[in-house]
């Protein structure tokens, strides 16, 4: 039996017992289920402390990150089967160009088997893609081997394509690197007004082993494994980002050794994600403060081991996931917090609409769970504002420790067709 519940006024639920909301089309309801247990109050207090940490999640862009200029004295790199270099700081060998000094490099032309290697220790290198179509049969078309930072600018009005091969080889077999069509061992920024198409047939689409900032351009990634990866963080404030993966996550940050890193921050952009695994996964915090996200996921929609924060009034998130729509939880269950304070969140989920191991707080915005097994589930749930509608097969709101044996069975069918968004 599917149930429907709508909450249009503040409801506070702080309990460690099971709570089921099963009224049909219940509007303007008020109620409270409370617990004064030491454990529930401790979780609420801890959630507040962790929320303060999440508010501090941010990035600081420097002048290099926002520099989209093309200096007159920039070195020119032209591909036409083989590569030619006009200027200083780079050397060509066949169809491979190695950049060894800081500065700007304008890249154009096409090749069926070429590569740009950046090997400039401690330097900032600016690669300007100006109508480049680079395929590589053996490795990453762009490989930042050594630098302080690499900036890739997509020149206005251009379309640029980078393609690797399913038969590519690792230059460093022990480290299994490079493992992406655009691979950087150091900080990587993508900006500009042009278009970038990445066809990653070997493994990942974009991978930075430090920070990854995407602050401009129209980015399209088709990846065999993960689409966009940044070890220390992934920051997106672009015009458009489209990712489709055959096996992995669409967007992922994966630093598990530093609690201040491993986060994903999305502030702007039309973002379309179609992932075999999680659509967006963060090791620590996943924050959406703006942008329009359209998500189809073979696993979870938004997932973090620590905290998911939806707090931007311009955030508009639509999720269709085989597992949970929004999920937060560590491997040992000691963490897992979700906060929704602004924006629009629409979820169709095969299992829980919103699930956190410890705490869910909804203080604003609009949440519409159009289909789920259980709608909203956590140990402690605090609803103090916002408009909420839940459609579920089992409990609409379930306050439990998750130890029961109930589970979903994949994407459920809609009870009745819905032709318009509720939020």
Overall description:
It contains one helix and 37 strands. It is mainly beta and 423 residues long. It starts with a strand and ends in a 24-residue tail after the last strand. The protein has a 23-stranded mixed beta sheet that branches. About 11% of the residues have low confidence.
User: Fraction of residues in helices?
Assistant: under 10%
Largest sheet features: 23 strands, mixed
Which regions are unreliable across 5 or more consecutive residues at pLDDT < 50? 8-36, 403-419
Mean pLDDT: 87
- What structural class is derived from the secondary structure elements? mainly beta
N-C termini distance: 24 Å
Outline type: elongated
Based on CA atoms alone, the radius of gyration comes out at 23 Å
Number of helices: 1
Extended strand count:
37
Proportion in β-strands: over 45%
């Amino acid at each position: 039996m599917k149930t429907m519940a709508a909450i249009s006024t503040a409801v506070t639920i702080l309990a460690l017992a099971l709570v089921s909301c099963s009224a049909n089309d219940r509007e303007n309801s008020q109620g409270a289920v409370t617990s004064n247990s030491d454990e529930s109050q401790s979780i609420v207090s801890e959630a507040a402390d962790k929320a303060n940490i999440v508010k501090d999640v941010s990035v600081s862009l420097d002048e290099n990150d926002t520099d989209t200029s093309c200096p007159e004295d920039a070195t020119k790199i032209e591909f036409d089967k083989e590569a030619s270099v006009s200027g200083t700081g780079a050397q060509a060998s066949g169809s491979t160009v190695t950049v060894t000094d800081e500065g700007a490099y304008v890249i154009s032309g096409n090749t069926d088997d070429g590569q740009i290697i950046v090997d400039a220790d401690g330097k900032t290198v600016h690669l300007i893609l100006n109508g480049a179509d680079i395929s590589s049969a053996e490795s990453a078309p762009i490989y930042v081997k050594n630098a302080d930072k690499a900036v890739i600018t997509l020149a206005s009005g251009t379309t640029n394509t980078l393609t690797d091969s399913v038969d590519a080889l690792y230059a460093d077999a022990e480290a299994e690197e490079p493992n992406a069509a655009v691979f950087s061992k150091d900080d990587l920024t993508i900006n500009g007004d042009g278009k970038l198409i990445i066809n990653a047939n070997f493994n990942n689409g974009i991978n930075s082993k430090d920070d990854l900032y995407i602050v401009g351009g129209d980015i399209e990634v088709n990846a065999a494994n993960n689409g966009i990866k940044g070890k220390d963080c992934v920051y997106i404030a672009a015009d458009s980002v489209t990712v489709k993966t055959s096996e992995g996550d669409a967007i992922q940050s994966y630093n598990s050794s530093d609690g201040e890193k491993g986060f994903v921050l999305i502030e702007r952009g039309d973002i379309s994600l179609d992932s075999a695994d999680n659509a967006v996964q963060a090791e620590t915090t996943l924050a959406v403060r703006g942008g329009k996200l359209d998500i189809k996921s073979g696993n979870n929609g938004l997932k973090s081991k620590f905290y998911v924060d939806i707090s931007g009034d311009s955030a508009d998130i639509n999720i269709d996931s085989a597992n949970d729509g929004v999920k937060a939880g560590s491997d040992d269950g000691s963490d897992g917090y979700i906060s929704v304070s602004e924006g629009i969140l629409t979820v169709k989920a095969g299992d829980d609409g919103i699930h956190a191991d410890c705490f869910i707080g909804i203080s604003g915005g609009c949440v519409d769970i159009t289909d789920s097994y259980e709608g909203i589930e956590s140990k402690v749930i605090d609803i103090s504002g916002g408009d909420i509608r839940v459609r579920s097969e089992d409990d609409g709101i379930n306050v439990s420790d998750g130890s029961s044996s109930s589970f979903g069975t994949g994407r459920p069918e809609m009870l009745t067709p819905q032709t318009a968004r509720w939020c």
